[in-house]
């Protein structure tokens, strides 16, 4: 069983990935507010993963534009690349590389590069007060997409508060953004990373250019006539300045285009084949969803249900089409396919490889709960029960149940009591009159839970018992109450107190 997962594979650029298990990109929320370089918390986290035997380790999304952050604590590249500004990034690459053993092989360190575009938040997105973000077109996010209610929805109010309608990028803005991606790839190369992954999924800027829903342009960057033009320009310019042994990957959505399902799939396949024809992309990671439809962290199947991983139908089709394309073009090397989402049991993982749904497997949430999963496999040859592997983080319960309890503090218990009473009142309101809460808030709580858990990865990796949030609200509060090492930013208080109040009301 472990044999398939542990087999090495070679990328088209010639780099060898020692096994098929990829630590997927996970935003760390550890940088100073309004962005900055990696710090000692990042180094501790990535050292723990670096010891874990992963074939490839992707960083969380690093924002190429200081003015388009996601949740404000993103890693951002420096404006100028000098020995001094590169140093923190060099230490990050070292943290990933330095701790592997010969038996496990050296993991590839891949820096994920992104630009949030219209999904960059107000207040903490890195822009001056009420300055809108830039996007392909002036099309705002629609978070309140459920059934209409009689009262104005909380969802609508929240989306207006958190996100502004973007302004359309000029051609100069586009050029500047292409340069920012290329500069960041140069940073990755100079600091010792093995490659970059361009984040063209989850509704961020590169995905906004691809989707006809967010891109209404009629120029060379039209989503109808040239959906991949922007992505292609970035890749060919990176290729022009960096060696061909530097890996380039793309994270792409399987399903967020707007047409009917059949068209949707054809469009996705077309994009995969177009990317293969460029002969410069080493891997395509298949995911899905955006802030409007948060499919990318869809429900993780329980061990009992054993359904397929989240985007396996799309990735299986991608492997099939690419294999056929390669047979027709024997000299071409096809990009490898990484399937990410919902791979939470070893059965699912091995099935995905054996059934040729993917060449490699992206593992997100489970890499937080079990930071040394591949190493355990390498050492033991097999793991029969994944919950046992993750139980060091918990009170000896299977990880899916999330029962990682810690005794609540008295203040926390009082707050929880009040919230319970409020929740009961809420259910007394007739359904059509209830203010509606956007799905993003629930996803936000889930992301927050894992973000807080990520801070504990170094302890979990040592097998220590850790205390994790027991509710979404606690997770959200813990996530935001964070100070980056060496910094106490007064802005944090000014911005976060109103934000926390709003989030608390929404619960
Ligand atoms: C806390 C958290 C942070 C994430 N940050 C990123 C990110 O920075 N870049 C990205 O491409 N995906 C990000 N994702 C999505 C994951 O990479 C992955 O696609 C998703 O979690 C599904 O995989 P899983 O079921 O193995 O968790 C994040 C997910 C979580 C839970």
From TrEMBL:
<keyword id="KW-0285">Flavoprotein</keyword>
<dbReference type="InterPro" id="IPR001155">
    <property type="entry name" value="OxRdtase_FMN_N"/>
</dbReference>
<keyword id="KW-0472">Membrane</keyword>
<dbReference type="InterPro" id="IPR013785">
    <property type="entry name" value="Aldolase_TIM"/>
</dbReference>
<dbReference type="InterPro" id="IPR051799">
    <property type="entry name" value="NADH_flavin_oxidoreductase"/>
</dbReference>
<keyword id="KW-0288">FMN</keyword>
<keyword id="KW-0812">Transmembrane</keyword>
<feature type="domain" description="NADH:flavin oxidoreductase/NADH oxidase N-terminal">
    <location>
        <begin position="5"/>
        <end position="378"/>
    </location>
</feature>
<comment type="similarity">
    <text>Belongs to the NADH:flavin oxidoreductase/NADH oxidase family.</text>
</comment>
<dbReference type="Pfam" id="PF00724">
    <property type="entry name" value="Oxidored_FMN"/>
</dbReference>
<dbReference type="GO" id="GO:0016491">
    <property type="term" value="F:oxidoreductase activity"/>
</dbReference>
<feature type="region of interest" description="Disordered">
    <location>
        <begin position="389"/>
        <end position="408"/>
    </location>
</feature>
<keyword id="KW-0560">Oxidoreductase</keyword>
<keyword id="KW-1133">Transmembrane helix</keyword>
<protein>
    <recommendedName>
        <fullName>NADH:flavin oxidoreductase/NADH oxidase N-terminal domain-containing protein</fullName>
    </recommendedName>
</protein>
<feature type="transmembrane region" description="Helical">
    <location>
        <begin position="488"/>
        <end position="506"/>
    </location>
</feature>
<dbReference type="GO" id="GO:0010181">
    <property type="term" value="F:FMN binding"/>
</dbReference>
């Amino acid at each position: 069983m472990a044999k398939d997962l542990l087999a090495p594979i070679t990328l088209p650029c010639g780099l060898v990935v020692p096994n098929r298990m990829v630590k997927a990109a996970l935003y760390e929320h550890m940088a100073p507010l309004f962005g900055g370089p990696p710090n000692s918390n990042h180094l501790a986290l990535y050292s723990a993963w670096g010891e874990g035997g992963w074939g490839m380790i992707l960083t969380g999304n690093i924002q190429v534009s200081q003015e388009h952050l996601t949740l404000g604590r993103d890693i951002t590249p420096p404006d100028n690349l000098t020995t001094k500004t590169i140093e923190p990034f060099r230490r990050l690459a070292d943290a990933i590389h330095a701790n592997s053993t010969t038996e496990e092989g050296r993991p590839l360190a891949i820096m994920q590069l992104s630009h949030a575009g219209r999904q960059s938040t107000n207040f903490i997105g890195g822009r001056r007060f009420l300055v809108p973000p830039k996007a392909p077109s002036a099309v705002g996010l629609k978070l309140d997409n459920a059934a209409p209610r009689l009262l104005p929805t909380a969802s609508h109010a929240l989306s207006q508060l958190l996100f502004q309608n973007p302004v359309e990028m000029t051609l100069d803005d586009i050029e500047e953004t292409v340069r920012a991606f290329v500069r960041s790839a140069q940073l990755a190369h100079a600091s010792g990373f093995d490659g970059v992954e361009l984040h063209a999924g989850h509704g961020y800027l590169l995905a906004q250019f691809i989707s006809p829903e967010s891109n209404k342009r009629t120029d060379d960057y039209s989503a109808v006539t040239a959906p991949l033009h922007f992505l292609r320009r970035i890749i060919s310019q990176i290729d022009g300045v960096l060696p061909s042994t530097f890996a380039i990957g793309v994270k792409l959505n399987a399903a967020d285009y707007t047409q009917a399902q059949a068209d949707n799939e054809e469009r996705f396949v077309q994009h995969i084949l177009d990317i293969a024809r460029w002969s410069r992309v080493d891997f395509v990671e298949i995911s899905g969803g955006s802030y409007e439809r948060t499919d990318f962290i869809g429900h993780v199947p329980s061990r009992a249900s054993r359904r397929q991983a989240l985007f396996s139908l799309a990735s299986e089709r991608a492997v099939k089409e690419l294999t056929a394309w390669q047979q027709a073009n024997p000299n071409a090397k096809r990009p490898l396919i990484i399937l990410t989402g919902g791979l939470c049991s070893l059965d699912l993982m091995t099935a995905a490889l054996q059934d040729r749904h993917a060449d490699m497997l992206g593992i997100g949430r489970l890499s937080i709960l079990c930071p040394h999963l591949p190493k355990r496999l390498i050492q033991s040859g097999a793991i029969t029960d994944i919950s046992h592997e993750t139980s060091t983080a918990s009170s000896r319960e299977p990880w899916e149940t999330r029962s990682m309890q810690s005794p609540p503090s008295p203040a926390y218990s009082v707050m929880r009591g009040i919230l319970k009473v409020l929740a009961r009142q809420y259910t007394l309101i007739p359904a059509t009159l209830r203010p509606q809460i956007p799905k993003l808030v629930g996803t936000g709580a889930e992301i927050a839970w894992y973000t807080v858990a990520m801070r504990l990865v170094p302890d979990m990796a040592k097998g220590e018992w850790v205390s994790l949030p027991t509710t979404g609200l606690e997770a959200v509060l813990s996530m935001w109450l964070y100070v980056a090492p060496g910094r106490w930013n007064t802005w944090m208080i000014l911005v976060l107190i109103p934000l926390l109040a709003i989030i608390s009301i929404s619960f």
